[in-house]
Amino acid sequence: MKRSLLFFLVLIFLLIALEVLSVYFIMPFPGSQLGLGESDSGNTSLGRVELAYWLHQNMGWLRAVGWLLLIYPAFLVVTKPRRTWHRYVVGGLALLYGFVFYEVNQEMMADQMFKQPINKQVVPMSQNKIPLNKLVLGFTAMGQATAYPIQLIGYHHQVRDTVGGQSVMITYCTVCRTGRVFSPIIKGQPDEFRLVGMDHFNAMFEDKRTGSWWRQATGEAILGPLKGTSLSELAGQHMTLGEWAAEHPNTRVLQADSAFTDEFDNMKNYEKGLSKGKLTRRDSASWQPKSWVIGVEKAGFSKAYDWNELVEKRILSDVVGNEPMLLAIAPDNISFGACSRRVGVQTLTFNYANRQLTDQETKSVWTWRGHCVAGPLRGKRLNAMPKAYQEFWHSWRSFHPDTKRDESH
After folding, report:
1. Where are the transmembrane segments (predicted)?
2. Which positions ≥6 away from 81 have C-beta within 8 Å?
3. To the nearest whole percent, how much of the chain has pLDDT over 90?
């Protein structure tokens, strides 16, 4: 009887440990993720995620075997206890396991904490209720524009939509401040995704067809049958709804689902960097893990620019991947643009003075969007850099380990 109780105790605690570990390594618990601002080869953090992935793939049979093995010793202890209190131990631990099982699978799973829209509404500006000063992730396809408020997609983490006849997956990770737009078509087949957890503090999705796990910041499958495959990224833009609508007056706008009013309310200060949680709150100093940067990719090269410096100087000029680039910020200090400085065969040099952006070569006047509004080049437009993002510094350097840090200005 003593052996039966001991066997029961070992098994029940092992089952509890398996349930806890299945979420521990893919959720932001103390010690579960690579620390903010730390860097490694990826092996340490990935090893933890690999364990979590193995548990998720095998949890069904592990539970079944554990439950079957528990039946006999539990029966012996309950029906023929050596001590009366043995029954209470077995009953209490069974209740504890039931509680842990419920919490892990109903409360702690990422897709249970951050749910998809129930009543998705995407309406024209004439019906829009989102304030114009709210930050959005905008996307255009085949002449149709749509704006997705960060306050909304930051909670949902992903929203599926169709823009210009194209199926899109709008994603956002608040802990990394990464907004990405992807095509959900994998090897010619459309797929569905659910939020499963995080790696390096970045959201991870699981596809329905193969069960592979995908990083949100890069669109790469890091585990599963599709490991090494990447989703096709589509160009999105961060700016206020007012600035987006000025550029795209016929835009559609995602509206708040009334089923998640409290969740959206908790996100209202996020875009300003004023969140209460330390994982989502901005550090106003430069080059700290939670500092804002503009990350730019071009031709396999990447570089990060200090947001504070951009706000102060209004423009930053540089070369990334042999592409001469202009970073400019809007008067609202929220919206920004990244453009090539080439116009035909000419490379322009820009100055900002007296609240006016001009090029040295022709003295033409430009907007922060890269539109020439006066001078010899009037009507010309600079080509946008498709991979320019505002995010936390810890995120950018985690997923761009070879990135350069701009300190030349």
Report:
1. 60-78, 85-102
2. 1, 87
3. 79
